[in-house]
Design a protein that fits this description.
alpha+beta, OB fold (Dihydrolipoamide Acetyltransferase, E2P), five-stranded mixed barrel, two-stranded antiparallel sheet, 4 helices, globular
Length: 168
């Protein structure tokens, strides 16, 4: 229990520090489609009114089992099992997701494996996708998505500052 608390405090502290360092948000991010938006003072992607679902299992850093089925995070890739940073990304997602997450549909509903694609937010509405990228645990998709530009800018910052286990 103590180790889990220390890990939680460490991961949350890292996420807060890296998110607070991000300063670039252009006008596109202040008028995002749907209900998700950025908080201009905190520079984080939020969706407080997205559908709330139960988390039943964390598969890896970018995949969850939920009360509405398996969900693949839209907009990010985390390392696969056996790759550098896999365990750190998975642990981060487990802690950030907790028992409930909020889901926002992207431009595609499912992936080639039939999993639901969605941007994933923690209970309070903060983007787990953005937290993973800012913390150096994930890379942003460049193909599509209403938050693509914002997430890729977070990745550029994490790479530049050598944040997290992906960019050391």
């Amino acid at each position: 229990m103590f180790r889990r608390m220390v890990l939680l405090i460490s991961v949350v502290s890292l996420a807060v520090l890296t998110v607070s360092c991000e300063t670039k948000v252009d006008s596109k991010h202040q008028t995002l489609s749907g209900s998700a938006k950025t908080r201009s003072s905190e520079h984080t992607l939020v969706c407080t009114d997205c559908d709330l679902v139960d988390v039943t299992k964390v598969i890896d850093g970018d995949t969850l089992d939920t009360s509405v089925g398996r969900v693949r995070f839209f907009g990010i890739d985390t390392p696969e099992k056996g790759d550098q940073c896999f365990q750190e990304a998975t642990n981060f997602t487990r802690i950030a997701a907790g028992d409930k997450v909020r889901l926002e549909t992207g431009p595609r509903r499912t992936d080639s494996y039939g999993r639901r694609l969605a941007y994933v937010y923690d209970f309070s509405g903060d983007s787990i996708d953005a937290q993973l990228i800012s913390g150096g645990f994930a890379v942003a998709w460049t193909r599509d998505g209403q938050h693509r530009d914002y997430l890729t800018s977070l990745e550029e910052n994490a790479r530049r500052t050598r944040t997290g286990c992906l960019w050391k």
